[in-house]
Amino acid sequence: MKIGDLATASSTAIDTIRYYEREGLLPAPGRTQGNFRIYGAEHLERLQFIRYCRGLDMSLNEVRVLLRVKDDPSADCGDVNALLDEHIGHVSRRIKELRALEKHLKELRHRCCEAHSASECGILQGLSVASQDGQATTDSAASHWRSVHSH
């Protein structure tokens, strides 16, 4: 199948497929005489595996480790166990951070229960005060954004 067919079959953007190829996650496909990429069922299966792992919020490096072990059926899966244990810890930390974020947002929401003029809005006042006090850049908030967007 051509790259467009693979993209459709896997619900993956063509640019993402090319990126995974450049990153070495997806093996380079064969080429037709017209120099079109031609993919097989093994590419689709591998791409689906990568996408599922990414959907579990695994980083590309984590996916790389999983693929390395998966590609060697006789390999010991101890690295996989350790990786998953570490990832579970990461997810647990994120949940804790998100709960703290939810609590903070709910506290802000309780500052303004009715519609007022913007100058009297408790939420805007709370955000302004917090931003001046540096509360918006606490380690927890910064950690939350790093963990969500660093993979």
Question: What does it look like?
Answer:
- This protein is an all-alpha fold and 151 residues long.
- The protein has 2 domains: 3-55, Multidrug-efflux Transporter Regulator, Chain: A, Domain 2, CATH 1.10.1660; 86-149.
- Helices cover 65% and strands 3% of the residues.
- A hairpin with a 5-residue loop joins strand 1 (30-31) and strand 2 (37-38).
- Helix 5 (78-109) crosses helix 7.
- The two termini are 30 Å apart.
- How do the SSEs run, as a string of H and E? HHEEHHHHH
What is the count of helical runs? 7
User: Radius of gyration, Cα only, in angstroms?
Assistant: 23 Å
Helix content: 55-70%
Mean pLDDT: 87
Distance between the termini: 30 Å
Q: In order across it, which strands form the biggest sheet?
A: 1-2
Query: Which residues form runs of ≥5 with pLDDT under 50?
Result: 140-151
Total beta-strand segments: 2
Number of domains: 2
* Main pleated-sheet profile: 2 strands, antiparallel
The general outline is: elongated
Instruction: Output the structural class.
Output: mainly alpha
Strand proportion = under 5%
